[in-house]
Every structure is written in C-alpha cells, then in structure tokens.
C-alpha cells in the first residue's frame, strides 16, 4: 500500500501541469522540500528526533461556508511513531470532531479517518484559514531513504452549508517522505517557520477558546 501511495503522489505531481489550480486546500506543515530526484517532497530527520506537524484547512476561493470536512492521515509507523495529537483551541471552538477509524494496515501503516462538523451557531467562511490540529512524532530506528511516502493527508469529503459536495474545489492531498540526515547536521532549520506560524490565521471572529483536546488519529 505504501508503494501505491507513492505512485499516486508521483502521478499527481506529473499531472500537475494540466490539473486545475485550486486555492482551497487541506495541508500540513512543514511541507518539506525536494532532496532527491523524485517529485515527492522530503524532510530530513534523525532517529530519536521529535517534531510536529501542523494540520490546516483553507477555504480560499470557495463561494459558501464550510459545513464539514472528512480527512484521512496515513503514516508509516516503522519510520515515525505518533506521540501526541492535539486539536487546536480555535478548531475546537468551531467544530465537533468525530474519530471515524484508526486502522493498522500491514505491513507498517496506520490509516486514521476523522470528521469535523461545524457547531450550531458557528460558521467557517470562504477565504478563511485554520490550523485545526497538531501532531507530534518521534523518528524511529526504521528510518530509511526508500523513496516511499511516510506521511500523507487526504481530504475525503468537504460539504458546504447547502449540503453540496465541494471536495473537487480543494487541493485534496499532500505527501511527505522522511529521510535520514548525517549525524550532527541541523535537521530542522526550516521547521522553525512552521513552529513560528503555529497560531491559526482566521479571517473571522472566534468565540473564546476552549481547552485543548487530544487524539491519536493524526
């Protein structure tokens, strides 16, 4: 399955020159950068290192409020192991979160699916951006530069307040390959940008934040 994820990611990159350009998206930071010849982005890390992904939803270019979205995270437990995942206070103030599944998939993947639904009286308008979760991982001894996807987010479904399926208006996936770097190297210099921008950017007023909630699905 990991090979299939990689093949789909490469095919998407190769077809990108003819695909429609969308502004709305689901994504994570750090996005990494190309460190080798394949089209997939890479992130240089070291065994034992701890790092954090920031998961974001962006409704730029949509014409109606977002009512719900369902996403899937696929991760390779051989190379990274989830330590803690936290729903941001901003997201918790707006959305109800429902964990649909968290399924181990041989030989080493885990696939988690999560649904976010807008709370009564709240709205998530077009042209808004929100960091809706953070997920902290520890790099495992199985880390290897195999050219295969180690972390992927996919938008499965997005519904607007008129109950229209608007998934096709989003960039729906992002994939990352983790790679070992020489011992003593500065592996996460470019992670600082992601860390500094951990706070959500929301172009609307939010209610007072509620307490963080923790999950195991990101």
TrEMBL record:
Source organism of this protein record: Rippkaea orientalis (strain PCC 8801 / RF-1) (Cyanothece sp. (strain PCC 8801))
Keywords, alphabetical: Signal
Name listed for the protein in its UniProt record: PEP-CTERM protein-sorting domain-containing protein
Signal peptide positions on this chain: 1-23
């Amino acid at each position: 399955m990991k090979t299939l994820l990689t093949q789909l990611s490469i095919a998407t990159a190769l077809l990108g020159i003819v695909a429609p350009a969308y502004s709305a998206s689901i994504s994570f930071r750090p996005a990494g950068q190309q460190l080798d010849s394949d089209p997939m982005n890479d992130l240089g890390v070291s065994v034992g290192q701890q790092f954090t992904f920031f998961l974001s939803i962006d409704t730029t270019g949509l014409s109606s409020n977002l009512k719900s979205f369902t996403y899937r995270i696929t991760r390779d437990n051989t190379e990274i192991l989830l330590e803690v995942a936290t729903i941001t206070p901003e997201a918790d103030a707006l959305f109800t979160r429902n964990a649909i599944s968290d399924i181990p998939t041989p030989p080493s993947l885990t696939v988690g699916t999560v649904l976010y639904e807008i709370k009564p009286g709240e709205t998530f308008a077009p042209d808004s951006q929100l960091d809706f979760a953070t997920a902290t991982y520890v790099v495992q001894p199985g880390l290897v530069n195999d050219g295969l996807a180690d972390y992927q987010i996919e938008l499965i479904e997005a519904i607007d307040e008129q109950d229209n399926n608007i998934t096709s208006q989003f960039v729906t996936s992002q994939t990352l390959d983790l790679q070992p770097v020489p011992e003593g190297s500065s592996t996460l210099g470019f992670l600082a940008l992601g860390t500094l921008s951990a706070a959500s950017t929301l172009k609307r007023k939010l209610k007072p934040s509620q307490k963080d909630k923790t999950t195991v699905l990101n």
